[in-house]
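Bug #77: duplicate submission created two jobs. Keeping one. Sequence:
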Amino acid sequence: MKEFVVYIVKHLVDNPEAVKVSEVVGETTVVYELKVDQPDMGKVIGKNGRTAHAIRVLLSAVARKAGKHATLEIASTTFSC
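Kept job's structure:
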């Protein structure tokens, strides 16, 4: 499932090399942390959060087929103060 998230997000952003996805697998739940560069956050989140929601829905559907529950957290790799 991690490869699924990476595939989708790398096709959305301008800097695909900066996309990082970490995965924590539990007995019934999988948590994914997606990190992208700050300039690409808008592309991953989308207008009114629609793109992020669509990614989460697709990930949830794929996880359900594997008998798991999936959660996706989206974070920036660079932080501004």
